[in-house]
What we know:
alpha/beta; 5 strands
Amino acid sequence: MYPEHLTAPMANELNKVGFKSLKTATDVDEVLGQKEGTTLVIVNSVCGCAAGHARPGAIAAVQNEKTPDNLVTVFAGVDGEATNKAREYFMPYPPSSPSMALFKDGKLVHFIERYHIEGANAQAVAANLKLAFDRFC
């Protein structure tokens, strides 16, 4: 587990644009247990692809005309309980950090795994999310 004081600036990048940090399994269940609306979950990470591709891509994507009703994040290696609970909702996808999951009416409708992020740039990640937002939000 990473010390939260070292990862706070990374978490704050998403918090500043409207993402709510989920810290417990109960927090995750309250949001992802909703059966109406859309929710984007970002699994944040300390890796370079999170810093260079995932967070900037997500930040750019939420400037889209259509966006999810809820924007939330869990931090792998920091919020262990919340991250593990979120990953239960991501099944059948294996654990992946960073990753991004879009839910509509309680169902997982779009998932971006780490290998989609690390092989792309922030603009490609944003474009992927915007297409999903346009389709599902």
